[in-house]
Amino acid sequence: MQTNPYSAPIAEDTPPSMGGPVNYGVVEQLVLTRPWVRLISLIAILFHALMLFVGSVWLIISSNSGPSYTAGSSYQSVPKLSIMGISYLIFGILGLYPALKLWKYASRISRLYDSSTEVELIAALTEQKKFWRFTGILILMYIAAIAMMVIINMARN
């Protein structure tokens, strides 16, 4: 104990431990969200897998049908189905990553429930952070793409 009340406080040299138990209330709240996280991730995985399948089918169909020529179209040599197929493949791939991150987040919650350690809590929250970071970047990319399409369409007319 210090005797001088005007001196700066002294901190311990060792950092706090990173493996202690986690409060039961915190674990319980995360465990209650796990079924919903799992459901949303499963639906997202199935939806994006379907997008990949449909995009692949459209590419196969368009490659077998040859070019489509329409009057006044600037995409005369590229079939519209192939553009849609490529778009579906891109969005299907981009959507799978956050869906898999949600799945991993739900799995980390299960591990946290089993161990109730701070290390598992940090691992679960890290997966959640990766999901939100990628989703935020993806939303910004979608907004930029929509804005570019609007500007291009306005310039054409």
UniProtKB/TrEMBL annotation:
The chain crosses the membrane at residues 39-61, 81-100, 131-152. Keywords: Membrane, Transmembrane, Transmembrane helix. It comes from the Bacteria. This is Uncharacterized protein. It comes from Luteolibacter pohnpeiensis.
